[in-house]
Design a protein that fits this description.
641 residues, alpha+beta, six-stranded mixed beta sheet, three-stranded antiparallel beta sheet, 20 helices, disordered N terminus, disordered C terminus
Length: 641
């Protein structure tokens, strides 16, 4: 590949590109790629404990069972996902430890999402929502071997046909029968059918934790979870009615509608903890007075689920980029003169799109690591803030994953449409992550309201740059702290606009006031997600162990920040945070960064560390094309031209 060149001289007065006070991209040649660069980038992406956290799940991708299996029916694909889930279970030393460890759980999803969106879904349900819920309640001390051995697969039944985002209003009931001490689980209405759980007979016997409204002597105590056997080797148990839903987009899962007709459960079926207990004589106690808070405590595993969904789609986005980048280097097209053939990667129109997506994928990866670390390390005093960051990151990462997988598929042309090339299913599989564990728009609206009404730190006070004492007109567009500060101004600006809309909204109409404020509030959340990603990105660059890795990450982070700021440049200019020359310089600055980063495109993709054994099975990732296989002629056709 020939080295990309920088554009010509910039317009007079344009603030050009020193990455730091001494470097000017207009006078420096793009650096030569280093063999060690991708290894250092891998370390920064996956952490120093990569072997302990990621190696087991990465290793699954080297096994034949996890490679593309052509010609399967939807039902066979679902069965394969369950077989793969059992392979996951055999690979882990302790299913209980896996369920307890958000970092291990997220890593599992990062790698399984690459090969099987259905497996990613099943693993999240079995280990996080089902087994994790048992361990988080008093059931942690009971015998769980039936589920850790997967002689019965766990599933989770919360969402109802008429109650999705308003799950606290669900209608399924579990009424205490004082005469027997049992609970009677019942589906009272059509709208109370449990919607989309994987409750078919495919994959063997199933057991569920079912979210139901606890009724004691006719009094509603709130929503709790109940351990409920659904099926055995002979079929569904009495009173459990399951109807398969039509196939959805993406990798198939055995989604069903599930109802209960007066199903009797033992007293031990109720998952008890401090937020709700029933003693031997049927007296109910709770440390929480609010039924809504009891519900949220019961389904607390949903927050870890958001991290899992983010991780799964993150893995999909990175895999799509590795495939697209490799294809771009091997695919030859006509060059600038007759008879010349050049790789797709030579064209700026092609590699610039991949580099923008790579910058985004790195930002997503570092944000996910940051949100995960904050969730693992949170205390009671910052639990809400940590959960909000997880929710904001989930929405942003999954939405960006959709954009990246779509872009990557398009850059592979018609070859990207064949499932054997490992990329066609990924955009549709990302869609499941966007909706699962809280629809993105809904969780962002909740986060927006919290950010507007809760006490919020001013993100504009962070790190000062050595260039901060310069006049605004002298601040270059690759001073990372300057760009980071501009993004913080975007967050603050949208927050101010949302607060003003709330104050000026129609009096006596709370919904009307919120409708006026919701659009700028969502813009605030979007910019806040980008800001947190930028902070994590800059922190990762500062940890780089080599000057080359640090330089490449700083330039990639700069490209990411300019991407995000481009759409806000008008408001920043109007609010006197940028000059007109800054706005004019956006395009040439971005173009210069792309030119400098182009030689590192393969290293940036290789750092995602997909196993060569897996990539060798993907034709366009290993220099091949669908259709280049030897063609077998039908009988009687020998000798025809």
């Amino acid at each position: 590949m020939t080295t990309a060149t920088l554009p010509g001289p910039l317009p007079s007065g344009t603030p050009v590109l020193p990455l730091g006070p001494d470097r000017d991209l207009t006078t420096q040649s793009p650096p030569e790629p280093s063999m060690a660069l991708d290894r250092e980038l891998t370390r920064l992406l996956f952490g120093d404990n990569q072997a302990a956290v990621h190696a087991t799940w990465r290793g699954l991708l080297t096994k034949e069972m996890f490679h593309h299996q052509p010609g399967l029916t939807p039902e066979q694909r679902v069965a394969l996902s369950y077989d793969r889930l059992r392979q996951v279970n055999e690979a882990t030393d302790s299913p209980e430890q896996l369920a307890r460890d958000p970092e291990l759980l997220a890593a599992l999803h990062e790698w399984t999402g690459v090969v099987d969106g259905g497996l990613c879904t099943l693993a999240s349900i079995h280990y996080n929502l089902f087994l994790g819920s048992l361990l988080d309640h008093d059931g942690a001390g009971q015998d769980l071997s039936e589920f850790t051995s997967m002689s019965s697969t766990g599933t989770f039944l919360c969402t109802e046909l008429s109650h999705g985002n308003d799950a606290p209003a669900l209608q399924t009931t579990a009424e205490l029968d004082r005469a027997t001490g049992e609970f009677i689980l019942n589906t009272p209405t059509t709208g109370a059918q449990k919607f989309m759980p994987n409750t078919s007979l495919t994959g063997g016997p199933k057991t569920a934790v079912v979210a139901a409204r606890l009724l004691i002597d006719g009094e509603d105590q709130g929503v709790y979870l109940f351990l409920t056997p659904l099926s055995d080797d002979k079929g569904h148990l009495p009173g459990v009615h399951v109807r398969r839903l039509p196939d959805r987009t993406g990798t198939p899962v055995d989604h069903c509608l599930t109802t209960f007709d007066q199903v009797r459960l033992d007293r031990e079926a109720l998952l008890q903890a401090d937020h709700g207990r029933i003693d031997a004589d049927g007296t109910f106690t709770s440390t929480l007075g609010s039924r809504r808070r009891r519900f949220l405590q019961s389904i607390a595993r949903v927050t870890t689920g958001k991290l899992c969904m983010s991780a799964g789609t993150l893995g999909m986005a990175r895999a799509s980029l590795v495939i697209a980048v490799r294809h771009a280097y091997s695919r030859q097209i006509s060059g600038s003169r007759r008879g010349l053939r050049v790789p797709l990667m030579e064209h700026r129109s092609h590699h610039s799109r991949l580099l923008h997506s790579l910058a985004l994928a790195y930002a997503m990866s570092f944000l996910h690591r940051s949100a995960l670390a904050q969730w693992i390390g949170h205390g009671l005093e910052d639990q809400e803030e940590a959960a909000r960051l997880v929710a904001v990151a989930k929405g942003w990462i999954t939405w960006q994953a959709r954009a990246i997988t779509t872009e990557s598929r398009e850059r592979c042309g018609a070859q990207g449409l064949f499932p054997a090339n490992g990329i066609s299913d990924l955009p549709l599989n990302v869609e499941g992550g966007i909706t699962a564990e809280g629809d993105n728009l809904v969780i962002w609206l909740k986060a927006a309201a919290e950010m507007l009404f809760a006490s919020q730190n001013d993100d504009r006070t962070a790190t000062e740059s050595p260039l901060s004492d310069r006049p605004l007109s002298d601040r270059p567009l690759t001073d990372l702290s300057f760009l980071r500060g501009l993004l913080a101004e975007v967050v603050a600006g949208w927050r101010s606009r949302a607060q003003l809309a709330l104050r000026q909204g129609p009096a006596g109409d709370p919904l009307g006031r919120w409708n006026e404020a919701s659009t700028p509030a969502l813009e605030m959340v979007s910019a806040y997600a980008c800001l947190k990603a930028a902070d994590a990105f800059m922190a990762a660059a500062a940890r780089a162990g080599t000057p080359e890795a640090r330089r490449v990450l700083e330039e990639l982070c700069c490209l990411f920040l300019l991407q995000q700021l481009n759409g806000h440049s008008g408001l920043l200019l109007a609010d006197n945070h940028m000059t007109a020359d800054h706005v004019r310089a956006l395009w040439p600055t971005i173009s210069g960064l792309v030119a400098r980063l182009a030689p590192h495109t393969m290293a940036l993709a290789d750092a995602f560390d997909l196993p060569e054994e897996f990539l060798a099975t993907v034709p366009i990732a290993s220099g091949g094309l669908i259709g280049h296989e030897p063609c077998e002629r039908p009988a009687g056709e020998a000798g025809r031209s």
